[in-house]
DNA sequence: GATGAATGAGGCTTCATTCAT
DNA sequence: CATGAATGAAGCCTCATTCAT
């Protein structure tokens, strides 16, 4: 889950501080959960699988997490935190709003290239989980991401960089959605995206779509 | 799940022919499945819930469907069929590619307004389902939808209506993705979308995003 | 669990009406639960054991009872109902208060002779269960039993049959307690109580204790 | 768990000698076990709870006790030892058998007033424990208590103080049973017993019941 | 002695599926 | 067609016990 390295801008490593406190095995469990979760989805993800994948005993999962929901909530939170930190770092960095949006797209594709499972969790499982989860912190984190992107859009509109007649929130959702389904298509195999050059192409495509749309004619 | 009625174009009713054969209760079960499925997701959707929701006896579900997977596969198929038929009808109708894409967006938003649960199933459940399903006809149907939209894009490119440098498949995925997450945001409440005028605004926003992107500057 | 047949008075069969509604297997489960519960106590009583003992499938227990607590609560309720109905029948029958108390003692010993496990459940598990249960209907039923006996005592006091200076509630608790621990001693083997003549002796002993105490001297 | 201080006779402090050897934390664990055990019963009593209640580390419990059974067996033994020592001291002291029985009742009520949880353990948990325990020293200790009281009764019969036609063992069980359920009723709240004067009343009631029974008429 | 992380068997509960009526 | 009782495998969670530090 490295930062993007794409010749334009390289967002900082946005990993949550691996607090010296955090036990190694807790982290192992969390990582394992990401993989299993990504592969089987929320309900298909069995604690036994996670434990096995993490190489720890069944019971240890419950030493560190109250129950399955809390574990998966943690997975969500962590993944979103990484993504949100990246967005925030990008937003606070130099460059125009357009460039920021482009960087976000590139970052997402880069992360996908490195650890597709993380992206699957990040993008495919949101809002697809039982209400318990949706009611929790996950929903808020999701909204935070949208809000951050919307903030960038708003700034771009103020600075004359982006279309002023677009609703920032809808725009943010649209951009993230385009990103998501494109990556989904890659995950599913509809689109090539694994090789280095494919990834570069994907980035360009999504950025192009988000910034310029499909029409050849200027709006008006 | 009526066609859109939006002053521009009204796609035909794309419901699968309610073959005189189909028993009323089978249909009731299918409808109930859509609702429950949409509300609880694949694994959260219990046969008992569907039966209760449909107002039929437990065992009857197994009279009409071999098992849970087949039931949900049917739900998918039916929903996608409706959507695909609509896309196909639009694609075969008069108008430029741009107009077709716009119509597709409007149709989706209209359907969402009428039966959000159908949209949830349609859009949110695709990638979450166990592999059994993904390997089945569902995946193909999903790909069919993408392919149809990609076809429209391709035609638009030939006719000089749409940007020629865009990958049609990625473009199709992006458009559907933007559509999806915008509606998701509406479902989740991030964006207003329930009232008539909100729906109209959503349509315009998504269409604008898909056709013109966010940038004020023409690409070049 | 027949009525007593002891030459003095024969209380009516106080079984709860075997409502034509009640499924046979539900009853089988309940009976099995009594036995297993009595043998292993609340926590030692595994659902699997009950199911096996009842000769039904594991899951059927959950068809008829929401969960383990509800099952055991039902066991309690049923047992207490039987006992309370007997007490009530005795209390409403002819005879002095002293005779009623004696009948209650005899009834208890008789039931014990017939189905010791029922008595174990009835007497040994009360107030020894997790708070969930104690908070439930069980506690109230227990109090009902005490109250009924206290009522008999009160009447005896009015009619000059029983000591007027005794607190009816404490007296009722004492009587039931003497009954309980005597039967417990029988259950545990401290006291002979299985054979017919042993049972008769037990009855006489307890009745004697409850009515006349141990002292040779009249209280003064 | 002090001796009774009730104006009539004050049994000696029957605590087991706190051998200078016994580590302070071992004692803390034992005391904590009494409380937790009393509150939750055998199976509801988790080692973790005991450790927390005692304010010691999880593993330390296993440093002092081989396993859960041994811990609880120790609790039982200690509690019974206290009670049995008290009975023995009373039995060996001066006074008639009637007075001895009365003293035992008063002692029990006094202990209850001071530490209800100890009484709960003492009285309520005997017959509920898994067979392992019942087979162990606990059962014997319980029988010892009954035997001691029965011995007092026997002496009273020899000395013409108590009814000669009563079975000493049944009488002992009855007396202890009356005591138990009366205190249970107090624990459960059916009867007032917390205040000083309530306790005094309880004592008088139970003693009256045990010695004179409920009947106004002399037996015969 | 003292700590608490680590282990894993055991029990409760759910729910897809079958089947007799 | 329709019903719902019956089945049992599968997964979550607890908690006694061990062990390295």
TrEMBL record, chains A, B, C, D:
Residues 23-83 form the HTH tetR-type domain. Residues 46-65 bind DNA. Residues 1-11 have a biased composition (Basic residues). Residues 1-24 are annotated as: Disordered. Keywords: DNA-binding. It holds the Pfam family TetR_N. SUPFAM superfamilies: Homeodomain-like, Tetracyclin repressor-like, C-terminal domain. PROSITE patterns: HTH_TETR_2 (PS50977). This is HTH tetR-type domain-containing protein.
């Amino acid at each position: 889950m490295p930062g993007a390295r794409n010749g334009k801008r390289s967002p900082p490593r946005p990993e949550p501080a691996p607090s010296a406190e955090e036990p190694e095995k807790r982290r192992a469990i969390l990582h394992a959960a990401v993989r299993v979760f990504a592969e089987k989805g929320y309900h298909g993800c069995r604690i036994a699988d996670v434990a096995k994948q993490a190489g720890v005993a069944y019971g240890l999962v419950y030493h560190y997490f109250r129950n399955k929901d809390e574990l998966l909530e943690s997975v969500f939170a962590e993944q979103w935190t990484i993504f949100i930190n990246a967005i925030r770092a990008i937003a606070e960095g130099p460059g125009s709003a357009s460039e920021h949006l482009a960087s976000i797209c590139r970052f997402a594709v880069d992360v996908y290239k490195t650890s597709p499972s993380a992206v699957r969790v990040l993008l495919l499982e949101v809002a697809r989980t039982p209400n318990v989860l949706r009611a929790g912190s996950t929903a808020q984190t999701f909204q935070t991401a949208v809000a951050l992107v919307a903030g960038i859009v708003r700034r771009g509109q103020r600075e004359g960089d982006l279309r002023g007649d677009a609703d920032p929130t809808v725009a943010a959702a649209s951009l993230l959605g385009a990103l998501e389904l494109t990556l989904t298509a890659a995950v599913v195999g509809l689109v090539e995206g694994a090789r280095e050059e494919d990834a570069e192409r994907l980035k360009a495509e999504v950025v192009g779509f988000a910034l310029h749309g499909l029409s050849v004619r200027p709006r008006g």
